[in-house]
Design goal:
- With 232 residues, the protein is α/β, with parallel strands linked by helices.
- It contains seven helices and nine strands; from the N terminus they run ββααβββαβαβαβαβα.
- The strands form two sheets. A seven-stranded mixed beta sheet has the order 1-3-2-6-7-8-9, sandwiched between helices. The protein has a two-stranded antiparallel ribbon with strand order 4-5.
- Helix 3 packs across helix 4.
- The radius of gyration is 16 Å and the shape is globular.
Length: 232
């Protein structure tokens, strides 16, 4: 990985002027860092000593002339994520492999920010949306020492049949998902919760009735309380 491929994107400095913790926001497929940095001012009111970073994914999106992607979804079908791991398709396996390969970009970004601010790992949390949640759940459990936690909106845990053997740490996880999501079905977060709890994670899932593929006000409040608890 070279300087040219290092992650970059918008950020919001700590409101207090002193950075005591960090939140990294990982956007979804076809978006970029600007998509989630708008959440930062909401969280900053409760976390004045937290700096927020929203990096652009490393690759141009294959389906959008302007967006970015963490890995290919060219063959994605929402039905893939309604199935149990034993029926995983080749396309879903390719997604898991893409997430595993490209999590190195996020690992490098985390290491850089922790060093820049001279902070321990337990002062950094990840927030993901959709594909960004997939990347957050790929990255955080495979790091040691443990991060402060993961908030995953409308996402999934990929490659969970091999998950147990890859775990290094168990940061707390908050999942929030709309029950009417047509893009990433709610079953994906239900399966993620089952896998996480079966492997000893302190994880919870909040299902948002009628919500489609997005983040609502209640989800923001849930995330804010989670971050206050684990970063405050």
């Amino acid at each position: 990985m070279t300087a040219e491929t290092a992650l970059n994107g918008p950020m919001l400095p700590a409101a207090s002027g002193t950075t005591k913790s960090i939140v990294i926001l990982l956007h979804g497929y076809g978006a970029d860092g600007n998509d989630l940095i708008g959440l930062a001012p909401h969280f900053a009111r409760a976390l004045p000593d937290t700096a927020f970073y929203s990096p652009n994914a490393p690759f141009p999106c294959e389906m959008s002339p302007f967006g970015r992607q963490w890995f290919s979804l060219a063959e994605y079908d929402p039905e893939f994520l309604r199935r149990q791991p034993e029926t995983m398709s080749g396309a879903l396996r390719a997604m898991a492999e893409g997430a595993a390969k490209n999590s190195a970009y996020i690992d490098r970004f985390i290491d850089t920010l922790l060093a820049e601010h001279d902070l321990p790992a337990n002062k950094l949390a990840l927030i993901g949306f959709s594909q960004g949640t997939m990347m957050s759940l790929q990255t955080a459990p495979r790091r040691d020492p443990a991060l402060a936690g993961v908030v995953g909106f409308s996402g999934a845990l990929l490659g969970d049949e091999a998950f147990a053997s890859a775990i290094k740490t168990r940061p707390p996880v908050l999942l929030v998902h709309g029950t009417a999501d047509p893009v990433v079905p709610i079953e994906a977060s239900r399966q993620a919760l089952d896998t996480l709890t079966a492997n000893g994670f302190a994880a919870e899932l909040h299902e948002r009735p009628g919500l489609q593929h997005g983040i609502d006000e209640e989800g923001i409040l849930l995330a804010m309380k989670f971050l206050q608890s684990h970063l405050g």
